[in-house]
Amino acid sequence: MKILVTGGIGYIGSHTVVELMNLGHIPIIIDNLVNSDIEVLDRIEKITGKRPIFEKVEMCNFDEMHRLFEKYPDIDAVIHFAALLLVEESVEEPLIYYYNNLTSTINLLQCMAEFNINKIVFSSSCTVYGEPDNLPVDEFAPIKPAMSPYGNTKKICEDILTDTVKATDIRCIMLRYFNPIGAHETALIGEFQDGPPHHLIPYITETAFGKREKLRIFGNDYNTPDGTCLRDYIHVVDIAIAHIAAIERMMKNTDKNIEVFNLGTGIGYSVLDMVNAFETATGIKINYEIVPRRAGDVEAVYADTHRANTELNWKAERTLEEMMRSAWKWEKALAGEK
Ligand code: UD1
């Protein structure tokens, strides 16, 4: 299959491209290179032995998108990763976030409708559940007001897709990711960092590496077993594989117009659990301190994965230890140490 992968050289996108290529599919990557590195193409080539097709496209420019679809009219399906995704930045620059994440999605859907390309897998996030009323959280849980413009763009894109599916032949699977971590086993691709990290795991690995003196743990007075927040951390390669399952499902089930699946392991680990898991996996002690809560953090969120396991026929398989080992290998690779 020929699969258009928007944001295909980003963190989750690049891992998905590798899995697609390993199965013999042909990804066509588009990216505007704003938050990504073109060198990832070389790295994908090293892993798979083939260079993926790449087009530098600004998705917010309708004409550029239209030209892309003219060039590749025989695309079988689309996986839409491309988005700005930094929570704090989105609070400071809401208009940039709304403009970028919504315009790109609208342009994509307009082109898909015009060129009769009718299958799309959308990258959504557990952020749409906010602080859930019940745990584990399933796909029918109410959508809560977003805690940030970034989170709101995910919610609005879900609405745009839902309405578009009703009005056109386009079908959609929305995948709500919990907390993707880790990197490819080769340590050739992972989450590239430009400046300070934005998530827990790179803070842990940078502390282990000696780039930072200590990890700051945001609050230990939550209503959880050890007082730190609970999250559902999932290996990025498991997330990548779920996209292939989603595409295959859309190819087979032509009666389903829109579906939503949680992508998690179903287990809630605390921040301290993650520190311990890293220490056990690597033998390196993490220096940490407890600091006040971070604004906007939810106390606990982890997935009910029943639907994904049964309907999508997909299950997260990689262990917490594998997540930690791969994250550590990636940190060392980033520093040029093998
Ligand atoms: C974040 C985003 C969320 C997004 C998700 C995946 C926020 C508020 N939420 O989720 O919208 O969908 O990433 O991209 O940014 N922690 C520390 N010390 C640190 C860093 C993190 O204690 O230095 C804790 C946090 O308080 C949290 C947990 O680690 O309890 C995970 O944090 P993080 O990796 O930033 O992800 P989320 O906040 O869950």
What attributes does this structure have?
single chain, 338 residues, alpha/beta, Rossmann fold, two-stranded parallel sheet, 11 helices, 17% strand, globular, binds uridine-diphosphate-N-acetylglucosamine
Distance between the termini: 35 Å
Task: Tell me the quaternary state.
Answer: single chain
What would you say the CATH architecture of the domain at 2-181 and 234-265 and 303-316 is? 3-Layer(aba) Sandwich
Classified by CATH, the class of the domain at 2-181 and 234-265 and 303-316 is: Alpha Beta
The mean pLDDT is: 96
Strand arrangement within the widest β-sheet reads 3-2-1-4-5-6-11
Q: What class would the helix/strand composition place it in?
A: alpha/beta
CATH superfamily of the domain at 2-181 and 234-265 and 303-316: NAD(P)-binding Rossmann-like Domain
The CATH topology of the domain at 2-181 and 234-265 and 303-316 turns out to be: Rossmann fold
Given the C-alpha coordinates, what overall shape results? globular
